[in-house]
Specification:
Structural class: mainly alpha
Number of helices: 6
Order of helices and strands: EHEHEHEEHHH
Largest sheet: 3 strands, parallel
Strand order of the largest sheet: 3-4-5
Oligomer: single chain
Length: 147
Amino acid sequence: MTATGAYVLLSLHPKSDRTWYQPLADATGAHINDERIYQLLPVCDVFVATYSSIVAQAIALHKPSIVIDFYELEYPLYAGAPGVKVLRDREQFLPALKMLLTDPLLYQKHVDAQKLHGTDWALLDGKNTERVIAVAEELIRKHPPAR
């Protein structure tokens, strides 16, 4: 990713050992950030991940994304998702990323698709807990626990 000239921020999974990844990041010029991805995603221009649930949040935030599937798992999760390109061929990754970073029309096309359909993927209104509680209460009303 750094070969594109972009400033690359890495967000490690919370259970990852930073000491293992730091030399790799240093060798490539990437930067490991200690903040959680939820805080970094809003400031990113492009999001690159595997089949992470965070891709849905990137869509809702109108962040064009590349899902890498180099093991060809072919999960249907993000197939056809707005503003998301699923790549299975390593050779296509760098050209696709460069294109996304340097072609403003392509970038805007992804953003526009995400603006139209982003809320189909995630609601980032701060009311997730309220919705979960409402569903739980509804289920309890419909199916009260046995006494």
